[in-house]
Specification:
The complex is a heterodimer of chains A (about 180) and B (about 240). In chain A, about 65% of the residues lie in helices and about 0% in strands. With about 180 residues, chain A is mainly alpha-helical. Chain B starts with a helix and ends in a 6-residue tail after the last strand. The chains are: A mainly alpha (about 180), B alpha+beta (about 240).
Chain lengths: ~180, ~240
């Protein structure tokens, strides 16, 4: 049943097949958890959000409209829950606690782990709606059309938001010396 | 100077969303415009940096905790299942044992049926006994005790052994709806607490079937109203441990 498509699994879940839900859970726990992790940064918060997402998915499966792709639907819930999680935090977002290197080298001389850390820190400096488009595009590999469905925005608006988010992310990374101008 | 359309083409190229016509158009732009080439190079470096954000492995307990929390919701969604489970709780030997235990150890306790609980979440299908009132005296010493001091719930969960019967007693005060999941020897029960308008103490007893299994603890998980895991702990189930 692992090879069964999402739509069929959803149908089976609606008919009370709990094993089908477990497959969906296994299939999506990684992207959902990662979306939340990159939105929130804190692994425990991300785990809580991921759990809430799957419980909501189960509760609302009967409301899922199969004309949309299932992953668009579950990612929408993940993004919304992450934004909700952020809204419960203090209004000031935590910023990267690691100060930029005084003399950073070019990006190809810095370790991957440090780049990852700096990029995550830079992401946290973006507005949540900008962070969300970066996460959807770069981490979850969504297309413009997917993002339009997930965010319930026209594709044109999605592109504009994504380009703005990249510009801002680039500026933060340039500031940190993580990118060459 | 780069036109907005050309910026869009550069992003779309890196996003893998160009049509062949757009690709041809972009090639012409890049040949003619060094600024466009510089922007494209810079964006490619940004993509490369962001690609370093690898997918992390989700915590191994995530799917289990979802399924545990789902257990209670499943019964809520399928009330028939809850009803059939409830029908047996007060007639089985576990209940009779509970009555003896309660009579002997919790002199002032009042036994209530699950359906009579003052709860907005009547989905506790495997509940053995709910004890109203607080301050009952005369208990023996517990095998083990877990003390909870969370914002949402406080109090203690104790394990006792009565001959060969393991007794798990929850003595908790929840200020908001929470769910406590207890597992032992392949058995799982879900307790919904904190649905009363005022935060009054609630005492619940669970008698797992079978003899206490040496080395097998009672695993406890406390979930908030939104299904988020608030606390995880374990309780010894056997005096010999």
């Amino acid at each position: 049943m692992v090879d069964v498509g999402d739509a069929e699994l959803v149908q089976r879940c609606c008919n009370g097949d709990r094993a089908a839900f477990e497959i969906l859970l296994k299939r999506y726990e990684r992207p959902v958890y990662n979306a939340a992790l990159r939105m929130l940064r804190n692994p425990e918060d991300a785990r809580d959000v991921a759990q809430t997402v799957f419980l909501k998915v189960y509760e609302h499966l009967s409301e899922y409209d199969p004309k949309y792709r299932f992953y668009s639907w579950i990612y929408r819930i993940a993004v919304n829950e992450s934004l909700h999680g952020l809204s419960r935090r203090h209004p000031v977002e935590p910023i990267d606690e690691q100060e930029p290197d005084e003399h950073p080298g070019p990006d190809d001389e810095v370790g991957d782990e440090q780049i990852s850390h700096q990029v995550q820190g830079a992401l946290m400096r973006l507005k949540p709606e900008h962070r969300a488009v970066i996460v959807l595009k770069h981490l979850l590999g969504c297309s413009y059309q997917d993002m339009s469905e997930i965010l319930e925005l026209p594709e044109k608006t999605v592109k504009s938001r994504l380009f703005t988010a990249r510009q801002m992310l680039k500026e933060v990374l340039l500031d940190q010396g993580m990118m060459r101008p | 100077m780069i036109q907005e359309r050309h910026v869009e083409l550069i992003h779309a190229e890196l996003d893998g969303e160009l049509t062949s016509e757009q690709r041809a158009e972009l090639s012409r732009v890049l040949l003619a415009n060094p600024e466009a080439r510089a922007l494209r190079d810079q964006l490619a470096r940004l993509f490369s940096a962001v690609a370093k954000l690898e997918l992390a492995d989700p915590p191994p307990e995530l799917s289990d905790s979802v399924l545990s929390a789902l257990g209670a919701k499943l019964r809520k969604l399928r009330p028939g299942a809850a009803h059939s489970a409830r029908r047996t709780w007060y007639t089985g030997p576990a209940f009779r044992y509970a009555a003896v235990f309660v009579g002997g150890l919790l002199a002032s306790a009042v036994l209530l049926a699950p359906g009579a609980r003052h709860s907005a979440r009547p989905d506790v299908s495997e509940l053995v006994g709910t004890i109203g009132g607080h301050g009952a005296a005369g208990r023996g010493s517990p095998i083990d005790r877990v003390t909870l001091d969370l914002t949402q719930v406080s109090g203690a969960v104790n394990s006792y052994q009565l001959d060969d019967q393991l007794v798990v007693e929850l003595d908790l005060t929840a200020s908001e709806p929470i769910e406590l999941v207890a597992r032992h020897a392949g058995q799982t029960v879900h307790f919904s607490l904190g649905s009363r308008p005022d935060a009054t103490p609630e005492r619940v007893i669970w008698l797992p079937a079978g003899k206490p299994q040496a080395g097998s603890d009672v695993e406890l998980e406390v979930y908030g109203g939104g299904g988020q895991l608030l606390h995880r702990d374990s309780l010894r189930a056997d005096e010999s441990e």
